[in-house]
Each structure stands twice: as structure tokens, then as C-alpha cells.
Amino acid sequence: MSNSKWEKLYRSYRSPRFTEPSEKIAAAMFELILDGIINSPSNWQENTETVMRSNSRSPFACEQMKCRLESGLYDELSELASGFRDVRSHESSQPYDDVYQAALVMLTVGFASSPAAEAITGKRSLFRGQNDSCRTIYPSVYQEHRGGTLSSRAERADRAARMVSIRMNLSYDDALAVVQHYGARNELNTQTWLMDVTWSPWVALFFASHHDPRSLKFGSEGVVWEVFRNEYEKMTGNGAVLGNIRVSMPQAVPRIDAQAAAFVSAACPSMIAQYLPIEVCRFRQHRGVFFEDAELGITQAVIYPESDAWLDSMRAIRSDLDHEDFDCHKVTGNVPRSVYCDPYKTEPYYDLLSQWVVRYAKPEQKNIIGHSNFTRAMDYLVAFHVGVVRCDGDPTFNGKYRRASLHRLEKAMRNLIQQAERKNCDSLDLREAILEPYCGDAGGNDVLLLFNLLKQPLSK
Questions:
Q1: Backbone angles phi, psi at 387, to 5 degrees
Q2: Strands 261-265, 195-198: parallel, antiparallel or unpaired by DSSP?
Q3: What letter does residue 438 receive in the DSSP assignment?
């Protein structure tokens, strides 16, 4: 165990006295201390008797509880209650002190402490954990530091998926998901257009906290995001513009099962990064502080088992990836054209804006899209957003805020629609529409970059 006070509190709260049905008395006493009803050892006795009677406990059990007070139970529960009060008073705009404070919050706001392998039928939420909140969430095939060109990386992924499909008797889609899962440099060393997610928030928290202590940057923050499939599809025009999210879940792959892993693809993979997921928690990283909970099945040994026959097979496949004589053309499948979708083109964004007019404008106002002033404002808004997309990789941009976000674009568009309803399109103010969504949480260099991007459309 680390020196984290929050880990100590988390382990205490996850101890048998709170998780086993036979220990509900201590949990009830903790709630009374947390609410201030018990505030000293002197009134512990009368409240103990009250709680015991309400739980139909015997006088012997009552005496047992009093004896536990003498062994320091009150002090332990008081310390835990103090920590919970700190959690409740935490400033929401600030990261949590460490991953275990974040874990305590997740326990108290309703994330069930259930094993990662629980049934997933009908679930709508997916989770993603990253150990650096500023890192992009683009699928790995778009990460240029991996070497080669986008085309060469995508073609290697396609070739690897065909090999896996044939050798492991999988469909092409499941094989591609396996390639993504085993795509690390020391495994298949292959990048795909899929994005790793999990059905378990606790697995996501594991990945968000795990880092190489030797390369941990000062001020690094881990983050867990929640992705609502229905919300993404609604955001992107119910599939009419950017397509729906597809989720692949290969079966009977032990490491994938242990991680409750799923693999997301979108019709325009390069644009999925602009769908800003819901942030579950953000926390400060500390060297050597990793989230693990054996009761939840969240440990290094479970998530990455030492014995993995699939990994051995993937490494054997890797050695064949550079040999042209391997017949991998028996499986239908190729790199989708949408992998090469240009996120800097204006057409998809203009189509999205048109969809949002239909959704948000009042029935009598839906014809505003034909008004020349409104159409011009839409053009300028798209031009501004594409400029933000181009700048989102700028190292001077604060990556944690994801300026190139479809949520921000949607808010700006709704502002324009409301202006048009109030002013009848005669005097639309693009600056007013853009400032709050894109600049409301900006500071420092971000403000300068955004205002420079505003100059061109505002000058027309």
C-alpha cells in the first residue's frame, strides 16, 4: 500500500465491516458519525443501542459493539467520516488529490462495486481511462509518432486483422478488435482505427492511474470518461452525418474478458475525438500510486495475466506481418475509406449544423437556414471550428479542455439559432455565439489562440 491517505481511507471503507451483510452495524454507526449525530465517544453508547434495536440485534451484539469502541473503532470511523466530508466539499472544477480519492467519490455517487465481468447486455455506457488527460483520444492509427504514414499504418492493421481472422477463426471485425487489443509495441506493434473502451468504470480507473514512474511528468492528471452511445449518435445526427458508433466484443479472449473490454469504431474515426465524453473524474498522478482492488478483480495480475496463450499467438503473427507470401486474402475486409476522412473539410460540419437547425429551431423558424445572413454565419462558424481543429494539436493549447469539441460547436450553433429567433436574422453576432462555448473556460495562451482564430470570420 502507498503512503496515500486516500488509499488508506478507501481500503478502510472497502473492508468487510462495510461490505459484508453481517457487519451492517458498523456501517450504520459510520453514517451516524458522518451526519454528526454521533460526535464523541460519550454518546456512542446510546446510539449503539438505538441502532442495534432497529436492526433487531441481541443485547450480546450490543455489548460486542461497545467493546469494539474500546478497541478504537470510533476513532477509525471518525477518521473515515472526516475524509468523506472532504470529498463532499471538493471543488468540482479541481482534480482530486489522487486516484483513491476519485475512487471514493465513484463509490459514493452510485458506481456499483461489482466485478468487471458483470453482464453487459443492454448497457449504454462505456468508459475510457487515460493516464494523461492532455493526450489526444484519437484512434492509434492517427498517432504520427508511431511511425510511417496513415496509409501504411492502416494497411498493416488490415493485414494483421486478416491473419488473426484466419488463424484464430474469428470474423474480420472481431479479429480487428483483437489486433487493437494486442497492438502495443511489444506485442503486435500495430495501430487500428478502433478505440479501446471498457464496460467497467473500475477497469477504466485502473488504466487512468497506471503509468511508468520513470517518465511521469510533473502535474500529470489521470482521467476517466463515460461515453453514452445514444448521446453520441444524437449529437451526430442519429447516424445521418457521421454514422453510428459500432462496438466490437470478441468472445473467449481471457484478457479482453478480464478488462471487460470493448472496441469502438465510428464512420469517421478521425472525428470521434471531437465527441467530448462525459468526465467521470480527474485526479493528480503521484509516482507509484496505482488503483487496484482485488475484490473487484482489478489488479495487475488479473488485467495482464502472466500466462496468455493469445499473446503468444499474436507475437507469432507479428513475425509474419512483413512476409508477402502469407495468404491473408481469404477474408473479406479492407481499410474503410472513412479512415482517411479529412477532419478539416467543412462539409460534414455544415451538414451537422443543418441537422441541429432542424432539431432546435422552433417550427416557424426552421426556414432560417435559407436566410442569407444565417447561412453566412453558419459558414463562418464552420470556418472557425475547423481552425480550432487544426490548432487542437498545438502544444501551447491546454489539451485537457478539448477545444475542438462537437459539444462546443453545438452550443455555438444553438446560440445562433436563439439569436435568429430574437432578431429575425437581421443582426447576428458571431462573437457572442462563439465566446461562451469556446472561451468560457479558457485562459492564458488558449484565449490568444482562440481570438486570433476569431479574427478572420469576424472581419467579414
A1: -60, -40
A2: antiparallel
A3: I
Q: Which residues sit opposite 248 in a β-bridge?
A: 263
Element containing residue 282 per DSSP (H, E): strand 278-284
**Cβ–Cβ < 8 Å for 271, 340:** no
| Residue appearing with cell numbers 440485534 | 57
First CA to last CA distance, the chain: 61
Within 10 A of 69 (CB to CB), how many other CB atoms are there? Answer: 16
Compute the distance between CA of residue 229 and CA of residue 244 in angstroms, rounded to an integer: 8
The residue written with cell numbers 480519492 in the block is: 101
Rounded Cα–Cα distance for residues 144 and 146 (Å)? 5
Q: Can you name the residues that pair with 278 across neighbouring β-strands?
A: 226
**pTM to 2 decimals?**
0.83
pLDDT in tens, 364-419: 777 888 888 899 899 989 988 888 888 766 655 555 556 778 888 999 999 999 99
By the 8 A CB rule, do 206 and 259 touch?
Answer: no
Closest CA to 203 of 303, 289, 308: 303
Sheet containing strand 125-130, edge to edge, reads 246-248, 261-265, 195-198, 125-130, 221-228, 278-284
pLDDT given for residue 284 in this prediction: 95
Partner residues linked to 130 by β-bridges:
223
